[in-house]
Specification:
The chain has helices at residues 16-19, 41-52, 65-76, 83-97, 103-122, 125-138, 157-168, 173-190, 198-207, 223-243, 262-270, 300-323, 327-341, 398-402, 412-420, 426-441, 462-474, 479-487, 517-527, 546-551, 554-558, 584-588, 607-615, 617-629, 636-648, 654-667, 681-690, 693-696, and strands spanning 279-282, 287-290, 294-296, 349-351, 364-366, 374-377, 513-514, 697-698. The protein is mainly α and 699 residues long. 40% of the residues are buried. The longest helix is centred in the middle third of the chain and has 24 residues, at 300-323. The strands form four sheets. The chain has a two-stranded antiparallel sheet with strand order 1-2. A two-stranded antiparallel sheet has the order 3-4. Helix content is 47%, strand content 4%.
């Protein structure tokens, strides 16, 4: 009988059992027989799955071509496949199967076509948008601070665009992590500047916005406590997103289940104690001022020169004001002075990290997490149970870097980042490949993707997890290569029903899966022919109904300015993410909780979802546009065929044509100039199609 994880002893100590725990062990290599060594990575994955379930790889039945193409588009793009893509793959698969009598040649040809389709999707910006949104879930991305006023985080959308571009370009994952944890320090080690490497420099500065994504109270009761709340939020995100550890559980006491002590927690926090807090404490003022949270994306000397010129103009104008005696002249100069003082620098800016002068703050263990009850001081180090990895030499400089002096920081964050992504650290690669697997199959090899500790669940197939992690590292930390390996397996391409004796949901497509919130909205726009081409830039505010405006937080609504209608036809990843007022359409369909890292979204089936998709004005308008997209064909059957091709990527069968034709005939009234046929019966049919399971679910 399962009783849950065992609670640790009150007196903290690292035991042999702790050190032998699977997540803290080095990655294991698989011993392959001579004939197995020549297999591709995808074939080896299938072999590991088959071994685990005492099956043969050929026991896994492949899904039909249309099902595969729809699944691939949904996973890599979050958009519906096109009829043309499905038709091409179906036709190719059919022709290949009858081309000659050699099954090997047939299979090789189909495999080649499947690989071509995978590459086409991976090369698209749509891939970056889809998988960038997954990452934003994992790091609790939002564009506001939360709490009562929910103020905006300036320029944070640049972090969103950085993430999207990084996935699209297949930036090595170790570099992706280092840039977020210590991009500014990493640049110094590389010797890169805004002039010598403008794109790399810009990316690394924007990436450090990771440290600014947390919720932030602009008027806390206790400013010291609030500063540690912010730091804890970041610790939780690092543990969840990169390491799969619930680090936050050790803030007030030793972790009750995992071998992470309170001393470990504050020693790890020490790596980040040089950061200038998001809001600088103002003692006795009942509030928090704004720290150095932005940085201009130009060389420092350029922004400094601009500021120097502005101050010179202000001094000159002030002299003119002091010398003037005419009231009208003084009033005019006063206005010019105000303009100069309010002048906004003409440079791009990013929400980014900054460090305080004087090095990191002293750090102590805090009794029950209370900053006013300090205990022993600590220095920076990784958790004791991970000491087998603590002596990892620092990359990009080795021992010389240990004594390197950074111009604007203490260098501790870079040490942390390089430890996180070092190949000898088994957690980081395991966590990422498991999250990729989970997004493709619905369930991870480790079913708790953000918790590899005792309160999580162990891997259902440890050999498979470690094989993927090692391949990930050896590929140069290429996320796209992990996709290629997984998507080419028989397991991924299996039917959506369990195979006899093969019932582990981590290894087969177990059932229909509903599109997520963004997938529903983006697919509706795509099928209606309205999906815009926006690829970056400030976020879009969709229109709010009057009911929402009347009931929402007045502060949130006052800052919500509806964007132009055409701009609103963008992909959902570009919609604003306000913590106090999430986009209603997405929220009803289980959009992420942006206050904490989200590894697995809730999936619900509720009456409001059905009512939204049937009656929402936005859905009504999309149904109208889809009906108009069917063209002005006089033959209803031709329109029905086009509708099925757009929405379902297939031809309707005779029974479906009959039912749809009768439906149109029953609803169609006399055609008039004021009320053409498309405005009623066809809108109703299109709305029904957009509400159907075949549209909203993917095999």
């Amino acid at each position: 009988l399962a009783t849950g994880p065992k609670k640790r002893n009150r007196n903290f100590e690292i035991t042999d059992e702790d050190r032998k725990y699977w997540a803290f062990q080095p990655l294991n290599s698989v011993a392959w027989a001579a004939d197995e060594q020549v297999l591709t990575a995808s074939q080896k994955i299938d072999l590991l799955i088959a071994r685990h379930h005492s099956l043969q790889p050929e026991d896994i039945q492949s899904a039909p071509p249309r099902e595969l193409v729809r699944r691939l588009f949904a996973d890599l793009w979050g958009l519906p496949a096109t009829f043309e893509h499905v038709y091409r793959f179906e036709k190719f698969a059919g022709a290949s199967s009858s081309r000659d009598n050699d099954p090997g040649n047939n299979n090789a040809a189909i495999e080649k076509e499947w690989e071509t389709l995978i590459e086409e999707l991976l090369d698209s910006h749509h891939y970056g948008e889809r998988w960038g949104r997954h990452w934003l879930d994992w790091v609790r991305y939002a564009e506001t601070n939360g709490y009562e006023r929910d103020g905006m985080k300036p320029h944070v959308w640049r972090y969103r665009d950085y993430v999207i571009d990084s996935f699209r370009d297949d930036k090595p994952y170790d570099q992706f992590v280092i840039e977020q944890l210590a991009g500014d320090e990493w640049l110094e080690v590389q010797g890169w500047t805004a002039k010598t490497h403008p794109k790399e420099w810009r990316d690394a500065i924007i990436a450090t916005g990771f440290y600014r994504l947390h919720i932030w109270d602009d008027e806390p009761d206790d400013t010291d406590l609030a500063e540690f709340e912010d730091a804890d939020d970041t610790m939780v995100a690092i543990g969840s997103a990169f390491l799969g550890l619930t680090l936050g559980c050790a803030r007030c006491h030793d972790h009750k289940f995992d071998p992470i002590s309170q001393n470990d927690y504050y020693s790890l926090l020490k790596f980040m104690r040089g950061i200038d807090p998001y809001g600088l404490s103002r003692k006795g003022g009942g509030g928090r001022g704004t720290g150095r949270i932005q940085r201009f994306l130009v060389p420092d000397e350029e922004s400094a020169q601009w500021e120097q010129d502005r101050q010179s103009k202000i001094l000159l104008k002030q002299s003119e004001f002091d010398a003037a005696t005419d009231p009208a002249v003084r009033l005019k100069i006063q206005g010019e002075l105000k303009e100069l003082r309010d002048l906004v620098p003409p440079f791009d800016a990013a929400l980014s990290v900054a460090e305080q002068s004087g090095g990191p703050k002293p750090t102590h263990v805090l009794h029950r997490g209370d900053p006013h009850a300090t205990k022993e001081p600590v220095d920076s180090r990784v958790p004791e149970v991970l000491q087998l990895m603590a002596d990892i030499p620092m990359a990009n400089g080795g021992s010389e870097q240990q004594g390197k002096s950074f111009s604007k920081s203490c260098g501790l964050r870079l040490k942390l980042a390089q430890w996180v992504v070092h190949p000898r650290n088994p957690l980081t690669a395991r966590v990422m490949v498991n999250k990729i697997w989970q997004r493709h199959f619905g369930v991870g090899i480790v079913p708790t993707p953000d918790d590899f500790g005792r309160t999580g669940q162990p891997p259902s197939n440890p050999a498979l997890l470690d094989f993927l992690a090692k391949e990930f590292i050896e590929s140069g930390w290429s996320i796209k290569q992990v996709h290629r390996m997984i998507l080419s397996t028989k397991a991924y391409r299996s039917r959506s029903q369990s195979v006899s004796g093969f019932s582990d949901p981590a290894y087969y497509q177990p059932q229909l899966r509903r599109l997520d919130a963004e997938g529903v909205r983006d697919s509706v726009l795509a099928v209606a022919g309205e999906l815009g081409s926006k690829k970056n830039g400030p976020s879009v505010y969709p229109s709010l109904t009057q009911e929402i405006r009347d009931s929402a937080n007045p502060v949130s609504v006052s800052a919500w300015q509806d964007s132009p209608i055409e701009d609103q036809k963008c992909r959902s990843v570009y919609l604003v993410v306000k913590r106090s007022l999430r986009v209603p359409f997405l929220e009803i369909l289980d959009f992420t909780n942006s206050t904490a890292p989200t590894a697995i979204r809730n999936v619900t089936t509720t009456a409001p979802q059905a009512l939204l998709l049937l009656n929402d004005p936005w859905m009504q308008e999309r149904s109208l546009q889809l009906a108009r997209r069917l063209g002005d064909l006089e033959n209803p059957e031709a329109r029905i065929r086009k509708l099925w091709q757009l929405a379902y990527q297939r031809e309707p069968n005779p029974e479906e044509i009959r039912i749809a034709t009768e439906y149109i005939a029953r609803l169609r009234g006399p055609r008039t100039a004021e009320q053409p046929e498309v405005e009623q019966a066809w809108i109703s049919l299109c709305r029904a199609i957009l509400n159907s399971n075949e549209f909203l679910y993917v095999d």
